[in-house]
Amino acid sequence: MRKFADIIERIEYVRKYLNLNKSRFSGEIGMKPQTYNNFIGAQGSKPNIELIHGIVNKFGVHPIWLLNGTGDVFSGRPGEGSAGGIYDGSGQVAESEMDPHLRQLSSSLNELYLQLQTLDPVISEAEKRIKELETSQLPLINGLTKVLERYVELDPVGATREMKAFIQKLGLRLKKTR
């Protein structure tokens, strides 16, 4: 059984209630369709703050209902006025009307969301640099593989000499990249 199946079921309920296909729904909350499918698919990825924040802010879904299934589904929809006086029309719960615990949770969720947004470019840059390193170091890895194969199969003494030379080259190359 998937750990977050209940939350995923509620998210799908909202999507179907709004009569949106998965692609449109994910686009509305600023998420790629494939990422959304990872949450609702068989593998059942853990719903992240971006998904929850998007649904709450875009469609006015009550965050407590989304997380634990209690209370009303919609507390008010952005652009349609407020329901019960707690939504301010932007999809945010008016802080003055919020339970103190919910206020703290909402504040924490918003802070985490902002932190995640600042991490996205850093992660993208790190992924790019790792890919560049993998590509640039491939000839070295291939050379190491050949030396090791020779060591195992043919000439242990000759392979040892080559390995020492290779290690020296690798050391020089690593010093240049620092």
Account of the 3D structure:
The chain is mostly helical. It has 2 domains: 5-98, lambda repressor-like DNA-binding domains (434 Repressor (Amino-terminal Domain)), CATH 1.10.260.40; 127-177. Helix content is 68%, strand content 0%. It has 7 helices and no strands. The protein has helices spanning 5-17, 22-28, 33-40, 49-59, 63-68, 100-153, 156-177. Helix 2 crosses helix 3 and helix 6 packs antiparallel against helix 7 (156-177). The longest helix is centred in the last third of the chain and has 54 residues, at 100-153. It is elongated, with a radius of gyration of 26 Å. The two termini are 48 Å apart. 13% of the residues are buried.
Number of helices: 7
CATH architectural designation of the largest domain: Orthogonal Bundle
Strand content: under 5%
The CATH superfamily name of the largest domain is lambda repressor-like DNA-binding domains
Q: Report the strand count.
A: 0
Structural domain tally? 2
Coarse structural class = mainly alpha
What is the terminal separation in angstroms?
48 Å
List the defining traits of the structure above.
178 residues; mainly alpha; 434 Repressor (Amino-terminal Domain); 2 domains; 7 helices; elongated
